[in-house]
Design goal:
This protein has helices at 15-28, 35-40, 44-59, 65-79, 82-94, 99-105, 122-137, 142-151, 154-177, 206-211, and strands at residues 186-189, 194-197. The chain contains ten helices and two strands. Helix 4 packs antiparallel against helix 5 (82-94). This is Carboxymuconolactone decarboxylase-like domain-containing protein. InterPro entries: AhpD-like, CMD-like.
Length: 212
C-alpha cells in the first residue's frame, strides 16, 4: 500500500468518528476490519459514506448472489484489481458459479462478439458482457443493453449498473494505492479447492493471486 494503514483499531476520540468506526465494524462483523477500511479511515467521513453505499450494494439489492459476484469479479479482471478478485471470485464460486465459468470470467480481452459459453446462463452472460463494456468503455452499446433488458426488470438493471459502478470505484481506489492484504489471515474456500493466503501486493493476474 502506498499510504500507511491507520492503527487497528483506529484511535478515534471524537464521538462522531467513534460512531463511524462502530458502523463499519458492524458491517464487517464477524470479520475484523479489512485493509481497505484501514486505508479509508484516514478520512472517516469518506469511510462512512463508502461503508453505507457498499453495504447497500452488497446486501440490500434484489440481485442473486451469483450475478452480483460474477459482475464484481469481471470488474476485477478488467481493471486488474487482483485484491478484489481474491475476495469475490471465491464468493462467486460459493454462489454456484462453476470453475469453468470462472475461467470465462478471467478472459482478459473484451467479450464483445463472443458467443455465450454453455457454462454460463443467459442471465449470467448478459451481466458479464454488460459489465465488460461498462468497465472498459463506460458507454454501452444498444445491443448489449437490449440483451440485458430482455432478461432483467428495470429495478434489476439499475442494481446491476450500480454494482458495476460501485466496484469500478473500489478497484480504482485499490489499484491506484496498490492495495494489499494482511499477512496473518488465511481464508479457506472449499469450492475453489485451494488455500488463498493473503499478504501479497496487487499481484499480476487472477491465477497469480489465487495460487499464492
Amino acid at each position: 500500500m502506498r499510504i500507511p494503514y491507520v492503527p487497528n483499531p483506529p484511535p478515534f476520540s471524537a464521538p462522531e468518528e467513534t460512531q463511524i468506526l462502530q458502523r463499519v465494524q458492524a458491517r464487517r462483523a464477524p470479520r475484523p476490519l479489512q485493509p481497505l477500511d484501514l486505508a479509508l479511515f484516514h478520512s472517516p467521513p469518506l469511510a462512512d459514506g463508502w461503508n453505507s453505499f457498499l453495504g447497500a450494494v452488497r446486501t440490500k439489492t434484489s440481485l442473486a448472489d451469483d450475478l452480483r459476484e460474477l459482475a464484481i469479479s469481471r470488474v476485477a479482471v478488467c481493471n486488474r484489481a487482483w485484491y478484489e478478485w481474491q475476495h469475490h471470485a471465491p464468493l462467486a464460486a460459493q454462489a454456484g458459479v462453476s470453475k469453468d465459468a470462472l475461467d470465462v470470467i478471467k478472459i482478459e480481452g473484451p467479450l464483445q462478439g463472443l458467443e455465450r459459453p454453455e457454462v454460463l446462463s443467459e442471465k449470467q452472460w448478459a451481466v458479464l458482457v454488460y459489465t465488460d463494456e461498462m468497465t472498459r468503455n463506460v458507454q454501452v452499446r444498444d445491443e448489449t443493453f437490449g440483451q440485458l433488458k430482455q432478461v432483467f426488470s428495470d429495478k434489476e438493471v439499475v442494481e446491476i449498473t450500480g454494482t458495476v459502478a460501485a466496484y469500478n470505484c473500489v478497484s480504482r481506489f485499490l489499484v491506484a494505492l496498490d492495495g494489499k492484504l494482511y499477512t496473518n489471515f488465511i481464508f479457506y474456500y472449499p469450492l475453489l479447492s485451494n488455500y488463498s493466503k493473503v499478504g501479497e501486493r496487487n499481484g499480476t493476474g487472477p491465477d497469480d493471486v489465487m495460487t499464492h
